[in-house]
Specification:
This protein is an alpha/beta fold. The chain contains 22 helices and 24 strands.
Length: 618
C-alpha cells in the first residue's frame, strides 16, 4: 500500500499536481494517508479515503526509549571528536540551546521517523506521496527513508498551501528601539537612586515570569532583603509591579553587541569549527536516528544556529559575565533553566560560584520531569510528593529539591477557600495547546480535543465558555468551532477571572487545573490521546481521566442532573492534592522562597523544608 503525507486545506481551487506536472486528486485512492493537521484528516475521510494523524502510527512501546535517544542526540550536535566547540566565555552555547534543539528539531524528527518508519515497514509502499506543504524537515526525512528501501520512490505533490517550517527559537531581542531603551534606562535611574537610600544589600539576579509576581510583590514589601536585577524585560502591564519592587533591568539595552577583540576571535573560531564539523564524515554520521541519517534534514537548522543564533547568545553570555563581575550577585532565581537565556544565567552563576534556584513555574507534562539539562543546583518543586518525584533517579536527582510551595498560588491560598458550587450553570472548557515535543502527542490533538469536547457539550443546559491558551489563534478557533453556536470562545480574559465565574472546569492536563482545585471547582479531566499523564491526574489520586466524548457527555449530564452528589465526588481528592503537590497550602510560599534565597546568599544552605514552615514564616 502506498503512503500519502498530507498537510493543508483541502478546499483549494486548483488541482494538485506532481512535481512533473501531472494532475492528481487531493489524495490517492488505495493509499494510507498520514496527515499533519486535523483539517486534512477530516476532509480526506469525507472523501472516503483512509486517513489518520501521522503521530497515531508511533509504536507506543518505543516512545520512551526514543525520547532517551533524542536526549543523547542533543548532546552530540555541538561536539566534534567529543570536544564542545561552542564554548564561549567559559559556558557552552550549544548546551544552552539544547532544549530548543530537542523540542523544535530533534524530537519532532525522531517522532516522525518512528511513525513513518513503522508505516513503511508495515505497508511496504512502492511510492511515498508527499505534499509540498509538508515541512522541509519531514520531506528530507522521507527521502532518507525511501533511499534505504529498494524499489521505493518519493513523489512530491505540489500544493498551494504555505509551508510552515520547523523554525529555530529566537533569542528575545534586547536591542530595543531608542524610545523604549530611553524609558527603561530612566526606570533604572529611579531604581538605583532608591537603592542608594536603602544602603548595601545582597544582589539577586532574577528572570521574570508571571509565576513570580507574588514573590516580586514581597520584595516591594521587604526592600531590604535583596537588590533585584532582572535579566529580561517584563511586558508593559507588569512594569509597574517591577518598578514598585525597586527591581533594575540588568542587561545593557544597546543596538549592537559590543564584543572585545578576544571575544570576536572566540566567535570566529566557533564558526570555523562548525565549518570543519560539517565536512567531517564522523560528525555527520553520528547525527542519525535508528539507522536513518538526520544530517540532510537538520543541516539547515544547525547552519541557522551558527549564522543567526550564536552571536546573540554569545552577547547574552558576555553581558551576563560582565554583570557578575560588576555586581557580584549573592544568588540567582529562575522560573526555569532550560530556555537559552535562563540557562546562561544558571551557567554563569555556576562559573562564578553563585547559588541559583529554579522555582518551578508549572507542572511538568509528565514525571519524573524530562528536563535533565539544567544546571541550577537548587530546585523548588512545590509540595513534598512533587519534590520527591523530581528528585527520583533519572530526573533531577543531583539537585537539592525543596518543597516550599508555589509563589504563583499565594494570593489565592491566603483567601478562605470558597465552598463548592451547588449547581452547574457555567462550564469553563480549557483548550489543549500543542505539545509537539512530547513523543506521543499529536499535532492534531488540540483540534480533536476541541471538537470532541464541544460535541459532548452541544446539548448541555448550561453556559459553555471555551478559553484559549495565549499561544493559540482566536480566529482559527472561531472557524473551527463555527457549528457550535452556543459556545462562547474567549482568549484574552485572565484565566482566574474565567474560573471564578465558572461552576465547573473541563480541561486537559495543565497547571490551570491546580488553580481550579484551589477555587474548589469540580474538574473533568479530558484525556483523548495516548499521551501519558502524571500524578495527580493519572487516576491514582481520585481524578479519573475521561477518554472519549461519550464519557465527557455522561459526566456532564450527571453533574447537571445530580449536582450535589456529583460535585461532592469530584471535589473529594482536592485536600490531599493541595498539600502533596502544591505544597503547604497556606499562601506563604513566596516568604519561604525568600528565606531559602537569603540562606543561600549567606552560607550556601537551602535547608527549607515543610516542617520548617512555622519558623520560616515567623
Amino acid at each position: 500500500m502506498d503512503l500519502y503525507f498530507a498537510r493543508g486545506e483541502r478546499s483549494e481551487p486548483h488541482e494538485p499536481k506532481t512535481a512533473g506536472g501531472r494532475k492528481r486528486s487531493p489524495g490517492a485512492a488505495g493509499a494510507l494517508h498520514l496527515c499533519f493537521d486535523w483539517e486534512s484528516c477530516a476532509a480526506l475521510r469525507r472523501l472516503g479515503l483512509d486517513a489518520s494523524a501521522w503521530e497515531d502510527h508511533i509504536p507506543e512501546d518505543q516512545a520512551s526509549s526514543a525520547a532517551r535517544e533524542t536526549e543523547a542526540l542533543c548532546d552530540a550536535w555541538y561536539r566534534l571528536e567529543d570536544r564542545d566547540f561552542t564554548v564561549f566565555e567559559g559556558v557552552s552555547l550549544g548546551k544552552a540551546y539544547r532544549f530548543i534543539m530537542l523540542g523544535l528539531t530533534v524530537r519532532p524528527a525522531a517522532k516522525f521517523l518512528l511513525a513513518a518508519g513503522a508505516a513503511v515497514e508495515r505497508h511496504g509502499p512502492r511510492t511515498i506521496w508527499c505534499e509540498t506543504s509538508v515541512p522541509k524537515l519531514h520531506q528530507g526525512l522521507l527521502r532518507s527513508l525511501a533511499a534505504r528501501r529498494p524499489g521505493c520512490r518519493i513523489e512530491l505533490v505540489s500544493r498551494r498551501a504555505a509551508s510552515r517550517e520547523v523554525l529555530a527559537w529566537k533569542l528575545p531581542d534586547m536591542r530595543l528601539s531608542r524610545p523604549k531603551r530611553a524609558a527603561l534606562q530612566a526606570l533604572n535611574v529611579l531604581a538605583r537612586a532608591r537603592s542608594v537610600t536603602l544602603g548595601p544589600r545582597p544582589v539577586l539576579v532574577a528572570s521574570y515570569y508571571f509565576s513570580l509576581d507574588n514573590f516580586i510583590r514581597l520584595l516591594a514589601e521587604d526592600p531590604g532583603a535583596f537588590r533585584c536585577l532582572l535579566v529580561d524585560t517584563p511586558n508593559k502591564e507588569k512594569l509597574d509591579l517591577v518598578v514598585r519592587a525597586g527591581a533594575e533591568l540588568a542587561l545593557d539595552h544597546r543596538r549592537e553587541p559590543a564584543f572585545s577583540q578576544s571575544q570576536r576571535e572566540s566567535l570566529a573560531r566557533m564558526r570555523e569549527d562548525w565549518r570543519l564539523a560539517r565536512e567531517d564524515r564522523s560528525y555527520r554520521d553520528k547525527l542519525s536516528f535508528r539507522g536513518t541519517p538526520l544530517w540532510p534534514s537538520i543541516e539547515g537548522v544547525l547552519e541557522d544556529f551558527f549564522r543567526t543564533q550564536a552571536e546573540p547568545l554569545a552577547w547574552a553570555a558576555a553581558s551576563l559575565d560582565e554583570l557578575w563581575r560588576r555586581e557580584r550577585p549573592s544568588a540567582a532565581l529562575l522560573p526555569y533553566d532550560e530556555i537559552p537565556l535562563q540557562h546562561l544565567v544558571s551557567d554563569i552563576a555556576r562559573k562564578h560560584g553563585t547559588p541559583s534556584v529554579v522555582a518551578l513555574h508549572g507542572l511538568p507534562d509528565y514525571l519524573p520531569p524530562p528536563f535533565a539539562g539544567g544546571t541550577s543546583p537548587v530546585f523548588s518543586a512545590w509540595g513534598p510528593t512533587l519534590a520527591s518525584l523530581c528528585a527520583a533517579p533519572g530526573a533531577w536527582g543531583d539537585r537539592t529539591c525543596l518543597a516550599i510551595g508555589n509563589p504563583h498560588f499565594d494570593g489565592h491560598l491566603r483567601l478562605r477557600r470558597p465552598a463548592p458550587p451547588k449547581e452547574v450553570r457555567t462550564i469553563l472548557v480549557l483548550s489543549c495547546p500543542p505539545r509537539n515535543w512530547i513523543m506521543l502527542a499529536s499535532e492534531s490533538e488540540p483540534q480533536t480535543y476541541a471538537t470532541t469536547v464541544c460535541e459532548a457539550l452541544r446539548a448541555a443546559n448550561a453556559r459553555v465558555v471555551f478559553k484559549l491558551h495565549p499561544c493559540e489563534s482566536l480566529s482559527y478557533y472561531l472557524r473551527l468551532l463555527k457549528d457550535f453556536d452556543r459556545i462562547e470562545i474567549i482568549k484574552d480574559k485572565p484565566i482566574m477571572e474565567c474560573m471564578l465565574e465558572a461552576d465547573m472546569v473541563i480541561g486537559p492536563f495543565s497547571t490551570a487545573l491546580i488553580e481550579a482545585i484551589i477555587l474548589n471547582k469540580p474538574i473533568l479531566l479530558a484525556k483523548l490521546t495516548r499521551t501519558p499523564l502524571s500524578p495527580p491526574f493519572d487516576g491514582s489520586w481520585g481524578i479519573k481521566p475521561l477518554s472519549s466524548g461519550d464519557e465527557i457527555h455522561a459526566a456532564v449530564t450527571r453533574l447537571l442532573r445530580h449536582p450535589e452528589e456529583a460535585i461532592a465526588d469530584a471535589c473529594r481528592p482536592y485536600a490531599r492534592i493541595l498539600e502533596e503537590f502544591v505544597g503547604p497550602a497556606d499562601g506563604r510560599a513566596s516568604r519561604r522562597l525568600l528565606t531559602a534565597l537569603r540562606r543561600l546568599a549567606l552560607d550556601g544552605s537551602a535547608a527549607v523544608e515543610p516542617g520548617d514552615a512555622a519558623a520560616v514564616d515567623a
